[in-house]
Design brief:
five-stranded mixed beta sheet; 164 residues; Lambda Exonuclease, Chain A; binds iron/sulfur cluster
Length: 164
Amino acid sequence: MQVNGTLMNSYFYCKRQCYLLGNRLNLQDDSEHVKIGREIHKQLAEGKKNTEIVIDNIRLDELTKDYAVEIKKSDAGAEGARWQLLFYLSILKSKGIVRKGKLEFLEVHENGKKTEIIELTRKKEKELKQHIEEIEALLESNEVPECTCKNSCDRCSYYEYCSI
Ligand code: SF4
């Protein structure tokens, strides 16, 4: 499977999850967390233009004249979300669309969301290329990475599989 934004994100969250997703070992995830995420995206998209933009193998939450926007429910997997957005910026750049990235975390503060602005610098581009190669090597491996269960594992669609 070609590296995409979801794989980039999960690589930073859990290598085992990345491996399972990347090798198409999909399990139905109808958990409450997934339903909430879907509903948030649906409500945000209502009444907005330029939402859910699909280009090649990426799906952007929004594209404005200045920003590619990625919306997350919380900042629990912030590092993965940053690299996911950097990956999107790189795909856009390859199409001649140069933007900064805007990450919006909806459930960070009681009084509102937290926003981060991200730029695809040369240094980040180099690091991104390296991460893409690391993910490709991971997916080609014959060994499933070990389960490194953490508190947030109950949000993962592989939770039951990993709990066996
Ligand atoms: S349940 Fe936890 S250890 Fe297993 S794949 Fe998901 S995040 Fe990784």
